[in-house]
Amino acid sequence: MSATLLSGKQLAKIIKQKVQHEARALEADGVRPALAVVVATDDGSTHWYVRSIERAAESAGISCRIVDLGPNATGQVLASVLKDLSEDPSVNGIILQTPLPPGVGTDELVGHIAPEKDIDGANPLSLGRLAVGQPSFAPATARAVIEILDHFDIPLAGRNVVVIGRSAVVGKPLSLLLLERDAAVTVCHSRSGPLERYTKTADVVVVAAGRTGLLNGGHVSSGATVIDVGTNVLPDGSLAGDVDEGSVRGVAAALTPVPGGVGSVTTSLLLLHTTEAAREQLRSLVPGAVR
To answer: The domain at 28-113 falls in which architecture?
Structure first.
């Protein structure tokens, strides 16, 4: 048996088509959706990723403003820029791209992103709203996992799902999204002990720990679905996930590839969130203006 690869590329195209439709509808109502990406690093891979967001946004009909503050930007400068963007009516979505300059923490800065423009769910208010079922943007990577499972008709209600990793970016928000779908969720982390204690009985395993090859074929049961969120850069510059794909493919029923899996969907969802934010902001200003 060899696992079916759950590619995210086709799903990403479907979401992008929806974004294009939404962007055209908003333009018909006099609004061009706008995204701002704040960058403060000289890391080459980060700038490559930001440029890819810019290209994807422009091709979907969304304006994208790259605010490059340089690798020596202070926390005070970053906070001021995020506040200004949050108050700027021409900006609908804001992303604070990591990494940040040494000594500058993310936790305090993301609190300056207005929740209605927080399209990647970074502000703690967004996570809190998600936890209690109030409208908010989930981190795009966490939502991408749910979208992939839905796209491939993998059921969640009543199923045992193990999430490996408890970050505020993926693990925690994803566990909340899974609970909303009536899954029985277990979250594993560095103190959980042997992974197989939990993963061997799981119907779905999601790995988001940032450790190359953390999950192998001995950890999963026959017929399980494995979602690999990891994007680890190898010495040769290539990307690898958190799953030892070679061993897992011989056991699991389905597996997302790296690259070409969750990451493919994440960028499209950031753009979709931007159009959703633009629609809600327009509706709040002119009730009934957006259908």
So the answer is: 3-Layer(aba) Sandwich (3.40)
Distance (Å, rounded) from C-alpha 49 to C-alpha 209?
20
Give the tens place of pLDDT for each residue, 173-231.
999 999 999 999 999 999 999 999 999 999 999 999 999 999 999 999 999 999 999 98
140-263 matches 28-113 in CATH topology: yes
Q: What is the largest CA-CA distance in the chain?
A: 57
For residue 67 the two structure tokens come to 């605010």
Tokens of 56: 């994807």
pTM over 0.85: yes
CB atoms within 10 A of CB 211: 14
Report the C-alpha gap between 242 and 197 in whole angstroms: 18
Distance CA 77, CA 65 (A): 17
Give the list of residues 6+ apart from residue 215 with CB closer than 8 angstroms, or none.
164, 195, 199, 205, 207, 226, 228, 242, 243, 244, 248
Class of domain 140-263: alpha beta
Q: What angle do CA 47, 85, 270 make, to 5 degrees?
A: 55
Q: Tell me the average pLDDT across 263-289.
A: 89
